[in-house]
Amino acid sequence: DAGVTQSPTHLIKTRGQQVTLRCSPKSGHDTVSWYQQALGQGPQFIFQYYEEEERQRGNFPDRFSGHQFPNYSSELNVNALLLGDSALYLCASSFRQAEDNSPLHFGNGTRLTVT
Amino acid sequence: EDKVVQSPLSLVVHEGDTVTLNCSYEVTNFRSLLWYKQEKKAPTFLFMLTSSGIEKKSGRLSSILDKKELFSILNITATQTGDSAIYLCAVVEYGGATNKLIFGTGTLLAVQP
User: Fold this and answer.
1) How far apart are CA B20 and CA B75, in angstroms?
2) What tens digit of pLDDT does each residue of B18-40 get?
3) Which partner from B59, B90, B95, B98 sits 20 to 30 angstroms from B80, CA to CA?
4) Residues of B in contact with A42 (CB under 8 A)
5) A residues 46-75 near B, CB within 8 Å?
6) For A1-23, what is each residue's pLDDT tens digit?
7) B68 with B23: CB under 8 angstroms?
8) Cross-chain CB nearest to B105 (options A42, A55, A102)
9) Interatomic CA distance for residues A25 and A71, integer angstroms
């Protein structure tokens, strides 16, 4: 039973470019949450998707957008990349109808470097 | 504003020592508190604490929550070099239909041989 999977593992982009990161939730999970972890910091909540819609959003600009597909997988898109977007991007999944639907388990993340 | 604060920020100990990591929080819609260990990539889940005063234990690691004083501690006894990692504390905030995590900045633990 695969856990949360993310791709790619590493990515190098130039300022101003756009990037798409992908996440497949754990089997049986329907909710995907994205987090950004800058160097030396704890992960920061970006947004959460279920039923193909954004349901909660953290304090991130509109350059950060996402999408959820009918198979529950999700994409995180970042436009007009800034140097400060360099970070580890983590995805977590959960099952919304569970008694406790806290997103406990993370994928291995995508390391984004913006030069 | 909701916040989670961990201390110390970093810690260097020798193998065999016992360490205590602290986490305090101010979160409006608290549901539970989580501890994670992070080495190179994804945080690895250690404990979920929901009720005050009930210790969770796994091998040499243990943790307890105080919901009155709004803090938690993570203890590691007989430390080993493999315990070297960043330890993250996160509060699960209830958001209606789903929950989100609010993380502290972490404690960097280095265990020397």
Assistant:
1) 5
2) 999 999 999 999 999 999 999 98
3) B90
4) 4, 6, 88, 90, 103-106
5) 48, 50, 55-56, 58
6) 569 999 999 999 999 999 999 99
7) no
8) A42
9) 9
